[in-house]
Design goal:
Number of helices: 10
Order of helices and strands: HEEEEHEHHHEEEHHHHEEHE
Largest sheet: 7 strands, mixed
Strand content: 15-25%
Helix content: 25-40%
Bound molecules: alpha-D-galactopyranose
Number of strands: 11
Structural class: alpha+beta
Shape: globular
Distance between the termini: 15 Å
Length: 371
C-alpha cells in the first residue's frame, strides 16, 4: 500500500474527514493486444499501488495535488459538475467525478492528494490504477453503492469517454479485480473472469525499461485501426472469432494485416494454453508460451523495440528463467519474466544492470520489490 505522508494530507486537506482509495498497477502475463478484439488476457497485479486521499469541499473549485508529478505540475484545479478535459493528469481525477455523475451518482466537490508507486508510461497501468483508486476514494467519501466490477467499467469510461484514449477493457478490470499470486483470466468479449492461482514454484519479475510510451498517439491507435480493417476484410464481427484453423484464410489480406491478425489469433490460443499450464502447474510450458508471445509481438505485431528485445534476451539467459516478454501496450515500457521460485530477483537485477551498462537505459526493477 502506498502511504501518503500525514503532513501532505494535513497541508492540503487540513483536518477534514479524509478517506483514501488504493489500487494496484498490473502486469499482463500473456494475452497482449487482444482485448480490443474481444480476446483473452491474463494479467496479475503488482505490489506497487496508487493512493488517492480525498476530502469533501463545499466551495466551487476542487483542487488536486500529485506528489508523483514534476514540482511545477503538481497542482491542478477543476469544478465538479463542470469537468472539462485539460489534457493533464488531473483529467483522471475530474474524469472520475464526471463519469460518476453521468452514471447518476451524487458526487459533490472534493479535494484530492495523490501518490503513486506505479511508474508512468511503463506499461503497468499507472493510469488505470489512478482512476480506480480515485473512484474507490469517491465511493467511500460519498457513500456510493458500487461494486468493484461496476467500478472497473466506470474506470474504463473515464479513459475512453472523458479523456478519449482508445484503451481496451483489460487495465481497469485488472486493477479493480486482480489479486496477488493469481492470474486473472478474462474473456474480454463477455467480461467473464476467473482467478487462477500462480503456482508457488514460479516467481515473476517485472523490469521497467524506463523508455516511456503514450497510448494517446501513434502505434497503439494504428494497431487498433489495423485490427478493425482486418476484421472488416475477413467479414467477421471480431478477430476473436477466429482460431488457428482459420490462419490459412488470412491469405486474402494485405501482408501487414495478415501479420496483425496472425498475432491476435495465435495469442488467444496461447492464453488458453497458458491457463491450462497454470492449472497443471506446468511453469516450463508457461515460460515457453511467454517466449512465443514475445516473438509474435516483435515479428507479427511490431510493437517491440530493440532495447526491449535485448532486455528479453538477457533475461532469458539468466539462471532459472523460464520465459520473458514485453508486457503492456509496447513501444517501450516493461518486460515480464517467469522464473523458478527464488530466482526472479537475481535475474531481474542482472537484466537491470545490463540495461544500464550495455544499453544506457535507466531501468527499474519493480517485481520482486527492491528496497
Ligand atoms: C494497453 C491498453 C490495454 C491493452 C494493452 C495491450 O495497456 O490499455 O487495453 O490493449 O495495451 O495488451
Amino acid at each position: 500500500m502506498t502511504e501518503i505522508p500525514h503532513h501532505d494530507i494535513i497541508r492540503h486537506l487540513g483536518h477534514r474527514r479524509t478517506v483514501v482509495g488504493q489500487a494496484p498497477g498490473r502486469v499482463n502475463l500473456i494475452g497482449e493486444h487482444t482485448d480490443y478484439s474481444g480476446g483473452f488476457v491474463l494479467p496479475t497485479v503488482i505490489p506497487q499501488t496508487t493512493a488517492v486521499a480525498v476530502a469533501a469541499n463545499a466551495g466551487v473549485a476542487s483542487r488536486a495535488w500529485s506528489a508523483s508529478m514534476p514540482h511545477d505540475a503538481q497542482q491542478a484545479r477543476f469544478v465538479v459538475g463542470e469537468e472539462t478535459r485539460s489534457d493533464g493528469w488531473v483529467d483522471y481525477v475530474q474524469g472520475a467525478s464526471a463519469v460518476l455523475r453521468a452514471a447518476g451518482h451524487d458526487v459533490g466537490g472534493f479535494d484530492a492528494v495523490i501518490r503513486s508507486e506505479v511508474p508512468l508510461g511503463s506499461g503497468l497501468s499507472s493510469s488505470a490504477s489512478l482512476v480506480v483508486a480515485t473512484l474507490r476514494a469517491l465511493r467511500d467519501l460519498f457513500a456510493l453503492s458500487i461494486d468493484d466490477a461496476v467500478l472497473a467499467g466506470l474506470a474504463r469510461r473515464v479513459e475512453t469517454d472523458f479523456i478519449g484514449v482508445p484503451i481496451g477493457v483489460m487495465d481497469p478490470i485488472a486493477c479493480a479485480i486482480g489479486t496477488a499470486n493469481h492470474a486473472l483470466f478474462l474473456d474480454t468479449r463477455d467480461l467473464s473472469w476467473q482467478l487462477v492461482r500462480i503456482p508457488s514454484t514460479a516467481e515473476i519479475a517485472v523490469i521497467n525499461s524506463g523508455i516511456s510510451h503514450s497510448h494517446a498517439t501513434g502505434g497503439y491507435r494504428l494497431r487498433r485501426e489495423e485490427c478493425d480493417a482486418a476484421t472488416r476484410a475477413l467479414g467477421v464481427h471480431a478477430l476473436r472469432e477466429l482460431t488457428d484453423a482459420d490462419l490459412r484464410a488470412l491469405d486474402v489480406l494485405p501482408d501487414v494485416l495478415q501479420k496483425r491478425a496472425r498475432h491476435i489469433i495465435t495469442e488467444n490460443g496461447r492464453v488458453l494454453a497458458a491457463v491450462e499450464a497454470l492449472r497443471k502447474r506446468d511453469i516450463v510450458r508457461l515460460g515457453a508460451l511467454m517466449d512465443a508471445s514475445h516473438e509474435s509481438l516483435r515479428d507479427q505485431y511490431d510493437v517491440s523495440i530493440p532495447e526491449i528485445d535485448r532486455m528479453v534476451a538477457i533475461a532469458r539467459a539468466q539462471r532459472g528463467v523460464l520465459g520473458a516478454r514485453i508486457t503492456g501496450g509496447g513501444f517501450g515500457g516493461s518486460i515480464v519474466v517467469l522464473a523458478t521460485a527464488g530466482q526472479a530477483g537475481k535475474a531481474a537485477d542482472a537484466v537491470a544492470q545490463a540495461a544500464r551498462d550495455e544499453l544506457g537505459l535507466r531501468p527499474q526493477v519493480l517485481v520482486p520489490p527492491r528496497k
